[in-house]
């Protein structure tokens, strides 16, 4: 019997005071640093704005659309619910959703750690380490898939911890469903499943699987992928606004036939490829020449050095700015929490299932990190940050009590433990202090940039205008024009970097034949013939030129 079995239950207010305080503190920090509207990024050396995937979700959610592979239907549907709130702009409501889910993720880790350690302070240390790590925090204040699915993963971990302690079918099925949601939209999360398997092996005498339980859990795990496919079949339709412009571009350039025009067998194949992100699988491979670059930025983020400045500051930024951007800013985990994680691994080795839960969360996710090579690598490390945070919580708990206490522990011993755990709170406080200024997206400068950028929503584009823009900018324009401006008559087409030079001429000729005005966003000028830039500059109304658009036709 565990030591906690002999303890009397604490008063309800005592049990809930710690998680309630944690939730209020974490949510207040996220709300204070929340992106105030549509996601934008300004790179001064390049001079353009763009919200990328974040802005895509902000316009896809209200339209109940299909995001880039793997589609993210559960995230989009949750976003749709948040857009119904009578608060702020639609974009801000989606940002608010991230803060809510980020807070829920911290609470899920808190709950798992309190179940494991039977103590609140260590759970606060672990949850705070996760909540205030930069890799986690930055996705709680701007809309991305990482924290949403990371939170669902942590809810699955919490439910599985409950199952191995009290083997009820409900907890196993809840864990399986949560993990099914993660894996159905993010196949990389398969690599964290060995962590849960190791925990079950350690606890199998207490939580044996029964055939009926396994069958129900398997169905719960597979069901989310079936929902994902059904969602894709229902919403991937060029007649719908969210899919219209990409289908139009593909039709003009003879790239891909409309999904609705395919025979059922091919539809099913395309849906599976899209919803498992296999269309991008060729980008994921181990590259030795990038290994040390990845290791460098990963170590920098984990070490805590990011609290004191950028990896490539000052003049080096001009040479290394892509690396600096990929490396991320601030601190994830940090040296104090890493020391606690090491202590936790040593002190809790007797209950090795929980140690392996943290270690394999780190190991499985880190393997994916070094294999996966696109420029946003560090956005994929949330499961490993959660693993470090869990181990740090174990370290803050001290050595586990192995036997039920027949009498109260000596007052001196209890006081020393509380002092030690109080000092352990410095680990998340270091992250909070080191990251707040660097991650704050609610600054006056950001609000000023957003106010200027948002004028696009009410800009005087002619009826049936076409805007050609790169991916990041196009998503922000779509949100502003379709959602804020309600200008469904305008088409915003994504122009890909891989297109040959004549592609732009082909698109311009098509829309000229239809007598539709065409505007290039400022970053598209590099694709226009030099002799045409002055003509476009004179042709464009001053208001649109100030907003970064140049009329190429019409």
What pattern of helices and strands is seen along the backbone?
A: HEEHHHHHHHHHHHHHHHHHHHEHEHEHHE
Number of strands: 6
Oligomer: single chain
What low-confidence regions span 5 or more consecutive residues with pLDDT below 50?
A: 1-8, 315-321, 403-407
Rg calculated over all Cα atoms: 25 Å
Name the beta content range. under 5%
| Domains, number | 2
- Alpha-carbon distance between the termini? 79 Å
Coarse morphology: globular
What structural class is derived from the secondary structure elements?
mainly alpha
Describe the structure.
α2 runs parallel beside α21 and α13 crosses α14 (316-327). The chain contains 24 helices and six strands. A four-stranded mixed sheet has the order 4-3-5-6. Strands 1-2 form a two-stranded antiparallel sheet. The radius of gyration is 25 Å and the shape is globular. It is 62% helix and 4% strand. The chain is mainly α. The longest helix is centred in the first third of the chain and has 28 residues, at 90-117.
Summarize the structure.
The chain is mainly α and 554 residues long. It is built from 24 helices and 6 strands.
């Amino acid at each position: 019997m565990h030591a906690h079995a002999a303890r009397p239950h604490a008063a309800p207010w005592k049990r809930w005071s710690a998680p309630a305080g944690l939730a209020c503190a974490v949510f207040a920090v996220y709300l204070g640093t929340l992106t105030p509207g549509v996601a934008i990024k300004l790179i001064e050396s390049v001079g353009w704005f763009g919200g990328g995937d974040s802005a895509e979700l902000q316009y896809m959610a209200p339209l109940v659309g299909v995001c880039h592979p793997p589609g993210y239907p559960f995230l989009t549907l949750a976003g749709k619910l948040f857009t119904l709130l009578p608060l702020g702009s639609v974009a801000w409501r989606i940002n608010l959703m991230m803060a809510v889910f980020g807070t829920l993720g911290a609470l899920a880790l808190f709950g798992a750690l309190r179940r494991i350690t039977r103590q609140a302070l260590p759970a606060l240390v672990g949850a705070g380490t996760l909540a205030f790590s930069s890799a986690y925090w930055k996705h709680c204040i701007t809309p991305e898939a990482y924290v949403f699915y990371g939170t669902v993963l942590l809810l699955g971990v919490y439910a599985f911890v409950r199952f191995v302690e009290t083997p009820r079918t409900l907890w196993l099925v809840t864990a399986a469903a949560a993990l099914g949601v993660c894996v159905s939209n993010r196949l990389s999360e398969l690599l964290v499943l060995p962590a849960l398997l190791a925990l079950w092996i350690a606890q199998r005498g207490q939580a044996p699987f029964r055939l009926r339980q396994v069958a129900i859990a398997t169905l719960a795990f597979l069901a989310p992928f079936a929902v994902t496919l059904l969602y894709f079949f229902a919403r991937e339709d060029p007649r719908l606004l969210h899919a219209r412009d990409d289908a139009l571009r593909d039709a003009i350039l003879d790239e891909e036939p409309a999904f609705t025009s395919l025979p059922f067998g091919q539809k099913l194949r395309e849906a599976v490829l899209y919803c498992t992100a296999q269309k991008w699988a060729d980008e994921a491979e181990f590259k030795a020449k990038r290994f040390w670059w990845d290791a460098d930025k990963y170590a920098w983020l984990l070490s805590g050095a990011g609290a004191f400045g950028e990896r490539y500051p000052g003049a080096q930024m001009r040479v290394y700015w892509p690396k600096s951007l990929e490396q991320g800013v601030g601190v994830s985990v940090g040296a104090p929490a890493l020391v606690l994680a090491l202590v936790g691994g040593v002190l809790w080795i007797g209950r090795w299932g929980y140690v392996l839960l943290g270690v394999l969360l780190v190991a499985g996710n880190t393997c994916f990190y070094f294999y996966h090579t696109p420029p946003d690598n560090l956005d994929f490390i949330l499961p490993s940050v959660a693993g470090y945070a869990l181990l740090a919580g174990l370290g803050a708990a001290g050595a586990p009590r192995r036997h039920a206490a027949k009498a109260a522990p000596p007052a001196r011993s209890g006081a020393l433990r509380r002092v030690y755990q109080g000092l352990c709170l410095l680990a998340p406080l270091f992250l909070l202090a080191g990251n707040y200024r660097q991650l704050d997206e609610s600054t006056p400068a950001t609000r000023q940039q957003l106010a200027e950028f948002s004028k696009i929503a009410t800009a005087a584009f002619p009826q049936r205008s076409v805007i050609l823009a790169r991916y990041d900018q196009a998503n922000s324009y779509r949100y502003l024009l379709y959602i804020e401006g309600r200008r469904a008559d305008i088409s915003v087409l994504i122009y890909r970097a891989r297109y040959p030079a004549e592609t732009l001429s082909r698109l311009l000729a098509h829309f000229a034949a239809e007598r539709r005005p065409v505007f290039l966003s400022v970053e598209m000028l590099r694709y226009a013939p030099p002799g045409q830039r002055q003509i476009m500059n004179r042709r464009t109304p001053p208001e649109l030129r100030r907003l970064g658009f140049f009329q190429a036709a019409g």
